[in-house]
Amino acid sequence: MHGRFAVALAWGGLAAVLAGCSSGKDARARADSARADSATAAAAPNADSAAAPGAGAGTLTSDITAAENSWRIAVTGGDTVELGRITAPGFTMVGGTGAASTVTRANLMKQVSQGMLQADSSSVSNLTVNGSGDSASADLTFFWRVSRNGKPPKAETMQVTDTWVKRDGRWQLASRKERAAK
């Protein structure tokens, strides 16, 4: 009887440790993802039926939606392993001020890993996907509460165009460009 109690106690302790490993930021990122997934699921039937009669357009939209959410969660969660996996080697992010605000993949990884760029929430909305085969572009609205260089977080909403390429069977973000607000 004592052996079973000890095993149950050990499993309970392990579960508590694993639950404790998730930070509040991770929990918020998962909650953001769930909201984005439910919004996408609600909009997907209309988007897919309007795109094309075949399943290809729906699959592309689903794939890019999932990739956008993976990128968003990695940035928000500070997950440089996932950022490294999901961004293409030549990735660049061009802000609203042009070349002066361009961030390379290496700079992004450094900013995230050193805590210079931290976000506590994010979301994707108004997603429109175009493309075929191994390339796609996504026009979307990106929202996040971001802190740069230790300053208090502030909410930012931007219109962006993401360019995705499929390499070795997975989608990678090749570039992100901020567009002028409409």
What does this structure look like?
The chain is of the alpha+beta class and 182 residues long. The chain has a single domain (23-179), classed as Nuclear Transport Factor 2, Chain: A (Roll), CATH 3.10.450. It is built from 5 helices and 6 strands. It has helices at 2-21, 24-51, 55-77, 80-86, 105-113, and strands spanning 87-95, 98-104, 117-132, 135-148, 154-167, 170-179. Strand 4 (135-148) and strand 5 form a beta hairpin. Helix 2 (24-51) runs antiparallel to helix 3 and helix 3 packs antiparallel against helix 4.
Short description:
This protein has 182 residues and is an alpha+beta fold. Helix content is 48%, strand content 38%.
Topology overview:
Layout: H1 2-21, H2 24-51, H3 55-77, H4 80-86, E1 87-95, E2 98-104, H5 105-113, E3 117-132, E4 135-148, E5 154-167, E6 170-179
Parallel strand pairs: 1-6
Antiparallel strand pairs: 1-2, 3-4, 4-5, 5-6
How many domains, as an integer?
1
CATH architecture classification = Roll
Q: Main sheet: which strands, in order across?
A: 2-1-6-5-4-3
- Which secondary-structure class do the elements indicate? alpha+beta
Morphology: globular
Number of helices: 5
CATH class group? Alpha Beta
Can you give the mean pLDDT? 77
Distance between the termini: 69 Å
Order of helices and strands: HHHHEEHEEEE
Largest sheet: 6 strands, mixed
Query: If you consult CATH, what is the topology?
Result: Nuclear Transport Factor 2, Chain: A
Flag low-confidence runs: 5-55
Beta-strand content bin: 35-45%
Rg computed from alpha carbons, rounded to a whole number of angstroms: 19 Å
- Total number of strands: 6
Helix share of residues? 40-55%
